[in-house]
Amino acid sequence: MRYFLIVLGALSLCFSSCASFEAEKANEAHTIEISFDANKTTGYMWVCAIDKTDIAQVIDEKYEIDYSRVDKNGICGAGGEQKFTILCKKKGHAIIRFSYIRPWEKEKKPEKEICCDLRVRENFDYRLEKCYEMSLSDIVSDVVSVFGVGIDV
Question: Residue 94 and residue 59: Cα distance in Å, rounded?
């Protein structure tokens, strides 16, 4: 029981800032644009899952390279921004989960994960709150520091 509480404490410390998260109302009244720092050259990409697609759904996803990060020789490897446009379809409540993954690593947990609570009102005004944000590497390093053992992820 004591070890369970220690691990639980370590996990709660991990719900900290691990990714750039920005949400803004897009040009259309019923859409939200959410963007994250990303780097496709690493193989990682953000994926989005919405539990109630009758309330909201992703209508666009794009990746834009940040050319200010590319050196004068055009060396690859610079990061960018991944943007999701979400359409609010009707009044209600939905959970939106963003996971930073390598699509071919099916058995591996997401490197980063952000869960958001979306509440859409009658007039399509919305409230989007970040429920939690977590990094797998943060969890592993905290568990290792508590138990002094290595963990494969």
Answer: 16
Distance (Å, whole) CA 72 – CA 127: 42
> What's the Rg (C-alpha) of the chain?
18
Q: What angle do CA 24, 139, 136 make, to 5 degrees?
A: 55
Cβ contact 72:114 at 8 Å: no
Output the furthest CA–CA distance in the chain (Å, rounded).
56
- Name the DSSP class of 109: P
d(C-alpha 14, C-alpha 52), whole Å? 27
Measured CA to CA in angstroms, residue 50 lies from 30, 58, 144 at distances of 16, 8, 33
pLDDT digits (tens, 9 = 90+) for 11-61: 333 333 334 555 555 544 588 999 999 988 899 999 999 999 999 999 999
- Do residues 111 and 137 lie in contact, with contact meaning Cβ atoms separated by under 8 Å? yes
**Can you say whether the dihedral through the CA atoms of 110, 113, 117, 123 is positive or negative?**
negative
